[in-house]
Design goal:
Helix content: over 70%
Radius of gyration: 27 Å
Structural class: mainly alpha
Shape: globular
Order of helices and strands: HHHHEEHHHHHHHHHHHHHHHHHHH
Strand order of the largest sheet: 1-2
Strand content: under 5%
């Protein structure tokens, strides 16, 4: 009855606020079609953005920026998707091909140039780069913006890397699509191992403005420029931060922190210890980047699409690395605080550290274009982080209260188990060859929840502060989770 009541309250509240939001906030108004198209692209609505850009083109047929965005946006639309009736809808590529073929036949040379360029760019997206180069060669205006960057892209896909490098340089010389050309050139030079040229580009004020932060970070890592490395790292982490994303990450973290505190019924932890552990989890999360870069750049261990390699990388390159970083705050609290004085504290402080880690991770994920994944992170990834860290903590707890022989081996055993769990969870989401089986991750998560509940109960029942009169009310806990997680979903809707 309690669960049913909370369901009714949640559903009624959600419906009322959803109705209020839709009545209170009108559809956005835009000063021009360009702003409208940008909004639709950022809202992950490429079908609407495509129509808006086509309308913009109809107002100004010579707007090359609109043509470029129109073609790119068209190919952002998934090639196929299923409607509610399970009918498969396919993207209509022939329509855009016919449109630019018709422009290419225009007697106006400028319109014909746009037609040839548009046909070529569409051919690049359709993986017909040989035909694309033929179309590009018909463009008479050799200073057309985007032209030579697209030519370079076509050559790069054909593995003609010298030509690709040359044409990216021509686009930059023409002051055309600087963002695309510089980015493509940097990735190409990095792929070809031309570190000296990349270092020269870093010294160029204009080039540095468009330099991909990931490559810049790698260059600083290889040259052991530690301060520059972390400067670029923090700048790139902060680049996608926004108010809604920050609030969402905080709400998720706070909801699970309070949940853990509600479970701690015998000897409640001081808030200062709770907050400190969460902050330590945030702080040490940054260590993932340099260790991962060492893994990839020095050891050469990275994802390559092969099943066994990617599984091992998920376990050791991601799982073991993140579990190592997340467990450090627990060790610090064990060594210096004196707060961990009952079995459940091991699980609680490990989970708090995991929540701090997940908070930083969520800040990166929740950019303005990704607010629709808030509920997924709250219900899956964050919970998985807590479970994995709790497995390591449970091993430490056994060393303290039960198994006193071979403490190092016992710790390593549980650390490996946590790394395996972490890697197994990630593998089905990362490797494209097994993407059709990604539901295994959800099944595994449900099993993990059952195991975590068992670990939690075992720890609580062995508390030195055990008091039979103090019990967890399952109804209240269910209500709490119902209200808070529904609240996060409602926040996502509003955001």
């Amino acid at each position: 009855m309690k669960l049913r009541k909370s369901l009714y309250i949640t559903a009624a509240t959600f419906a009322a606020i959803a109705l209020l939001v839709n009545l209170a906030f009108e559809d956005p108004e835009f000063e021009n079609l360009k702003d409208k198209a940008v909004f639709e692209q950022e809202a992950n609505q490429p079908e609407k953005a495509e129509q808006t850009l086509l309308e913009l083109i109809s107002q100004d047929i010579f707007n090359i920026d609109a043509h470029y965005e129109y073609i790119c946006t068209h190919f952002d639309i998934p090639y196929e998707k299923k409607e509610r009736g399970e009918e498969t809808i396919y993207r209509d590529d022939q329509k855009i091909v016919n449109f630019y073929d018709s422009l290419a036949g225009s007697e106006d040379p400028d319109i014909a140039d746009i037609g040839h360029y548009g046909s070529g760019l569409a051919a690049v997206f359709l993986d017909d780069c040989t035909s694309a180069l033929d179309y590009f060669s018909m463009v008479k205006n050799h200073r057309m913006k985007y032209l030579y960057n697209s030519v370079g892209n076509a050559y790069m896909q054909l593995d003609s890397l010298d030509q690709a490098e040359f044409y990216f340089g021509v686009e930059i010389y023409n002051k055309g699509n600087l963002q695309g050309a510089y980015s493509n050139l940097v990735y190409l030079l990095y792929y070809r191992g031309k570190t000296d040229q990349l270092e020269q580009m870093l010294e160029d004020v204009e080039a540095r403005e468009y330099f991909p932060p990931g490559i810049e970070r790698i260059l600083h890592f290889k040259s052991a420029r530690i301060l520059s490395y972390f400067r670029v790292l923090f700048r790139s982490m902060a680049s996608g931060m926004n108010v809604m994303g920050f609030l969402a990450a905080f709400l998720i973290m706070a909801s699970w922190v309070v949940y853990l505190r509600k479970l701690d019924i015998f000897e409640v932890e001081k808030w200062r210890h709770v907050i400190l552990t969460v902050l330590l989890g945030m702080m040490f999360s940054v260590l993932v980047y340099p260790i991962s870069d060492f893994n990839n750049l020095v050891l050469g261990f990275d994802l390559n699409g092969q099943l066994m390699n990617d599984f091992l990388y998920c376990v050791f390159g991601i799982g073991a690395l993140e579990e190592l970083v997340k467990i450090i705050p627990l060790f610090i609290m064990l060594r210096f605080s004196g707060a961990i004085n009952e079995p459940f504290d091991y699980i609680k402080y490990a989970s708090l550290s995991a929540l701090g880690f997940a908070f930083v991770e969520n800040l990166i994920y929740f950019d303005e274009n990704s607010l629709h994944i808030i509920h997924g992170r709250a219900l899956t990834a964050v919970v998985a982080h807590m479970f994995d860290s709790s497995v390591v903590a449970y091993g430490l707890m056994l060393n303290k209260y039960k198994t006193r022989r071979y403490p190092v081996l016992n710790f390593l055993l549980f650390f490996i188990l946590a790394s395996l769990a972490h890697g197994f969870y990630d593998f089905w989401l990362i490797n494209e060859k097994v993407s059709d089986f990604s539901f295994i991750t959800i099944v595994f998560l449900l099993i993990s929840l059952f195991i975590w509940n068992t670990l939690k109960n075992n720890a609580l029942n062995q508390s030195g502060f055990f008091d039979a009169s103090k019990k967890i009310d399952p109804g209240k806990m269910e209500d709490y989770l119902m209200y808070t997680l529904a609240g996060i979903l409602l926040f996502e809707f509003i955001a």
